[in-house]
Design brief:
CATH class of the largest domain: Mainly Alpha
CATH topology of the largest domain: Tetracycline Repressor, domain 2
Strand content: under 5%
Structural class: mainly alpha
Radius of gyration: 19 Å
Number of strands: 0
Largest sheet: none
Helix content: over 70%
Number of domains: 2
Number of helices: 9
């Protein structure tokens, strides 16, 4: 019996994730949340602590998946892996349908405008994940001689963070993963040029 409850809880959490991703926190009413997740008002309050607490759990779930499955990793061909990672983000065949809503964590960051401590903590975690991943890839590529010795890893890490945030805004505004394709292609080209012929 407890196992069945866990499966139901996971399904409800995943349904809530999609709803919050699509509509935001303020745009999603409690009644719709209950109807589309299958949660009762009692369960929403007693098991999840209400709409806001459920939203924070959703952000944690999103960040967990982002860190484990989405962030690019160091490899022998780190620069090419990084370039392709940006290209894949704007490709409808490789991204889930929910990707057209941009990035749930970025959407929440913008919606709450730094005014909520709980959301701010998740935002810091989200940004740190990108910084750590991009920095590790660029540092590794530099150590392997794929980038020039003068290459500023810290500055380019920040540039890539800005690029991925901007890409997600473009995708959200266009309501389609492919809306970001021209931007993703340009970012990938820039990344590849970093390791191009050097004098």
């Amino acid at each position: 019996m407890p196992r069945s409850r866990k499966v139901e809880a996971k399904a409800a959490l995943n349904a809530a994730l999609v709803l919050f991703w699509k509509q935001g926190f303020s745009g999603l009413g409690t009644r719709q949340l209950e109807e589309e997740t299958g949660l009762t008002r009692f369960t929403l309050q007693t098991s999840y602590g209400g709409k806001k607490s459920l939203f924070i759990q959703v952000l944690d779930t999103y960040c967990d998946g982002f860190e484990k499955q989405i962030l690019p990793r160091v490899s022998e061909q780190s620069i090419e892996v990084l370039a392709k990672w940006f290209e894949v983000r704007a490709h409808s065949a490789t991204m889930p349908e929910t990707g057209c809503y941009g990035c749930l964590m970025l959407n929440a960051t913008i919606e709450f405008q730094g005014q909520d401590v709980d959301v701010n903590l998740r935002t810091e975690r989200y940004f740190a994940g990108f910084r750590t991943s991009f920095n590790a890839i660029l540092e590794d590529a530099k150590q392997m001689g794929q980038l020039p010795a003068s290459f500023d890893v810290e500055a380019k890490t920040e540039m890539l963070l800005g690029a991925v945030l901007g890409l997600n805004v473009v995708i959200r505004a266009g309501a389609a993963n492919t809306a970001g394709a021209p931007m993703a292609t340009a970012i990938a080209q820039q990344i590849r040029e970093w390791s191009g012929p050097r004098i």
